Amino acid sequence: MLIAFFVNDMDREHAGFTTTVLAHEATRRGHRVCYVTPGDFMLNPQDELHVHARFAPQKKARTAAEFFKNMQAVDHDAVTIDVREIDVLMLRSDPSLDAQARPWSEDVGIIFGRAAAERGVLVLNDPDSLSLAINKLYFQSFPEAVRADTLITKFASDVKAFAKDHGGKIILKPLQGSGGQSVFLVGSENASNMNQMIEAITRDGYIIAQAYVPAAAKGDIRLFLMNGRPLQIGKKFAALRRVSSKDDIRSNIHAGGKAEAVDITDKELRVAELIRPKLMADGMFLVGIDIVGDKILEVNVFSPGNLQSCSKLAGVNFATPIIAAIERKIEIAAEFAGAFDNRALAVM
What we know:
10 helices; Rossmann fold; PreATP-grasp_dom_sf; ligase; six-stranded antiparallel sheet; Dna Ligase, domain 1; 29% helix
C-alpha cells in the first residue's frame, strides 16, 4: 500500500509531529510512504492527475526521529507519479498556517483531494467535509450541549455586550487560525484593553467571543477520535491534559503548554458520543477534540497533534491502530468495489 501524506511544506515538519509518527508506523508495517505539498500537483492535458512526491527511503528506520532524518535527506528528490498509484492520501496540512503568507495554497489539499478521490484514491479526512471545516464556524454545527456560549462578529459593540452578559470574563480568538494565535482571556484586570484585543483579531477577519469555562483553569484535555469513537488500546485512551504555562491561557503544547497524563471519565466519553454522529456523517476519520469540563473548545479535523505525547504518557503506540484501520479500509474498498463513496469509507 502507498500512503501519501499531504503537508504544508517539508521545512515545517518535525520529528515529533503526528504526521511523522504515522508515516513511520506505516513504513514499519511494510507500506510505502511519500510526502506531498501544495505545489506538487499537476493536471495534464489528458486530465490525468499527477503529483511530485518525495518517497521515504527503503531502509528501515527504528524510530520516528530516524525516519524523519531519512526524509530530510530526500527533501528535494521528487518523483512524478500518477495519483492513481496512491492508495491513501492523508490530508495533514493546517490551512490556517498558509492563509496569510500563501493564500493560494490554503485549500489546495481540499481541491486536489477531491480530484484524487474521484480517481479512486481514499482521501482522509473526507475533502468535501473539510471544505466546510476550514474555519471555526464548523464548530457551531455540533450539538449545543457540548458548546460554550459563542458569538461570532466583527463589531466591537457586539463583543462588549456579550462580555457584559457573561460577567465580564470571556475568551476572544479569530474565526480562522490555530495553535493559540491571537487568543485572549478578557477579565476585570484587563477589560480596559478589550478594544486593542478586538482590533488585533478583527484586522484579519471575524472574531469569536466565547463564554469562559471555569474548568479551563486546570487546562484542557486533548482526546483523539478515530472512526468517530475515542481512540484506545485496551483501557488506555489517546489523550492528555494540556496545562497552560504561567500567565498564559493557551494550553497548546507549542505555545508553552505542558502535557500531563489524564484519566478519561464518563464525562469526556459522553461529550465524544454527542459529536460522534456528525463526525461519522462527515467522513472524519482522525480528529482531535479539546475538552474543558463538559464542553468542547476545539474540534481539529485537519492536523490534530500530540499523538506521540499521548503514546509516551500511556506507554503504548497509538499509531498502530490508526494504520491498521487504514489497512482495513483498503480491504473493504477491494471487497466492495465501488459500493461506498469516499465519505462513507473514510469512517468504516
